[in-house]
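Weekly modeling sync, notes
Attendees: S.R. (lead), two postdocs, one rotation student

Agenda item 3: backlog of single-chain predictions. S.R. asked that every request posted to the team notebook include the full sequence so nobody has to chase files. The rotation student volunteered to paste the first one in as an example of the format we agreed on. Action items at the bottom.

Example entry:
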Amino acid sequence: MKISLTQLQAFNTVYKLLDSCYEQTKSDDIACLAGDMLFLGDGSTVGPAVWSDWMDAIENKEFLNKQEAFDGMINFLDIDLSFWKNGDGRTRVNFKRWCLCSMESDKSKSLRSCSFFIQ
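Predicted structure, as returned to the notebook:
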């Protein structure tokens, strides 16, 4: 059976990943982005541009398979974490590497590795 996610389901999955990483690192930068992803009562996100950035990242696709959702997440992080990097871009690259690792089968090991990648 082919798995398909809606825009919102994929967005919420990225939020959960960021939240898990925050729990491991207590990084203010990750908390800031995750906080911007929360929804207000009117259906908009706390960060006014976050949903628009997400739609750009997933190329406005209505439904996404797992690979498209993952690619969208990486694109989204490129957009919204562009401010959050060392001069050489290492932090963002390492965060993306952690995201890749967190998709592996041993999620608990990947979560423990989060603090290593966010340095």
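Discussion: group reviewed the output briefly. DSSP finds six helices and two strands in the chain.
Action items: rotation student to repeat for the remaining queue; S.R. to check formatting next week.
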